[in-house]
Amino acid sequence: MRDAYRKNYFDTNLLFIIFLFMIISCFSIYSSEKYLPDPPNHYAFKQVRWYFIGIVLSACVYVLDFEQIKKISLFSYVSGILILIALHFAPESIAHKIKGAKSWFSVPGFGSIQPSEFMKIFLIIFLAKIIVDHNKKYVDRSLKTDFRLIFKVFSATSIPLGLILLQPDAGTGMVIMVILIGMLFLSGIHWKIVGLLGVLGSSILGVLVLIYTKAPDLLLLFLDKYQLERIHSWLDPFQYKGDIGYQLSQSILAIGSGTMYGKGYYSGQVYIPEAHSDFIFTTIGEEYGFLGGSVVITLYFILIYRIVAIALLNKGSYENLIAAGVVSMLTFHIFENIGMVMGLVPITGIPLPLLSYGGSSILGTLIALSLILNISAKTKKYMFEQDSTRDL
After folding, report:
1. Which parts pass through the membrane (predicted)?
2. Helix (H, G, I), strand (E, B) or coil at 346
3. Interior CA angle at 339 toward 256 and 29, to 5°?
4. SS3 sequence, 129-144?
5. Which domain holds residue 165?
6. Does 1 map to a domain?
7. Are 160 and 119 in contact (CB under 8 A)?
């Protein structure tokens, strides 16, 4: 009975949501170009080009079997590490600094490419392999084997994390840590270890808050002066609106002035630096108000929901772990970006997935989502599956 009927579970709903984000992105970027001091820059048309390249790359990933992806995961991981090392030592003529960070390669005719965006994908598929191979080797789990797994994944993560923090890029570094935590959570480690890690993380955060309130200069031991000033401006943006808090204070004013229904398309009046990239949600909030912002957040909720639903339908642990990494990455990006433009969390320069302008972000996100669509296409749904047990 089990083979009487089956079909592929290709998630057309997820694909439709992705195309909706593409349309919203292009229109929003075109509207935000009015804020740029030297138009026309044609960022909207460049975004269409990046989407096209991303679709082609995603199609290449889509046709791969997950056994093939698993086999090339180590090669991809090592290649990403080598590229990050090359970026660190590359001359500024091909790896120029932007806002003090050396995070991009300059590619003639295309603009800038950020290797860390692809390193996140390489890390996800490699960590999934480490976890699956470990669980196959140690069928009888114990605290000792679980700590061994934690050591493996932390070791694999520490190398790209260290190279990214050297750029410095604290925002992407946080994304890497969130990916690690999300995948560890579903790796099967004992709940006591999960609780211990949670307490440890909360304690570290509490200590950092205490240091900031009592002796903030101590944070300069692992933060540069600019990053510490970012924290100051986040807590009181209007006090620093003439300097480092200008972008955030303008963003809060723009979103607040959008009220319930917004000012209308291309009718934004508050100047926002980088409105086409990291602050694209500000443009949406000003022009479409609370209603428009709520629609975008709802679409993101549906996007995450569909990825989780695909992961639950699939029985392969390797695929599930990849989905966990992608969900962790996208959820943190969405929460951090929307939170930072409203002043809820510090500004980190993390783009809004599928909406912010940026080739590397678009390519990395589309490749990640193609892995999810690949999972959905390889998943089979069987009719009368419960009845099949009665035939035995």
Report:
1. 12-30, 50-67, 74-90, 110-128, 149-166, 172-189, 196-213, 288-309, 321-342, 354-373
2. coil
3. 70
4. HHHHHHHHHCCCCCHH
5. 6-391
6. no
7. yes
